[in-house]
Amino acid sequence: MAQDGYMSKENVRKLSALYRDVDDIDLFVGGTLENPHKKALLGPTDLCIIGDQFSRFKLADRFWFENGNEEES
């Protein structure tokens, strides 16, 4: 993880001291410790989750303009 640049080595060290296994790290804790992705405020994990959720909202919204269910005037 640290070699990829997603999280600082210092944060990896802190997490290693607190958790026995990487699977024990809470998603919120790990996500907030990630370095921001490019010009974003969030790291890649949080961006992926939010992007996926927004995509699902759009597909489930029958009134979303891209879904083609617009009433004709």
Written description of the protein model:
The chain has 73 residues and is mostly helical. It is 47% helix and 0% strand. It has three helices and no strands. The longest helix has 17 residues. The chain starts with 8 loop residues before the first helix and ends in a 13-residue tail after the last helix. The mean pLDDT is 87.
Describe the biggest sheet? none
Q: Which percent range fits the helix content?
A: 40-55%
SS-based structural class? Answer: mainly alpha
What would the principal axes of the Cα set say about the shape? Answer: elongated
Cα Rg: 18 Å
Q: Regions with pLDDT < 50 over 5+ consecutive residues?
A: none
* Number of beta strands: 0
| Series of secondary-structure elements, N-terminal to C-terminal | HHH
Strand content: under 5%
Residue-averaged pLDDT: 87
List keywords for this structure.
73 residues, mainly alpha, 47% helix
Blueprint of the fold:
Elements: H1 9-18, H2 27-33, H3 44-60
Write a brief structural summary.
It is elongated, with a radius of gyration of 18 Å. It has helices at 9-18, 27-33, 44-60. The chain is built from three helices and no strands.
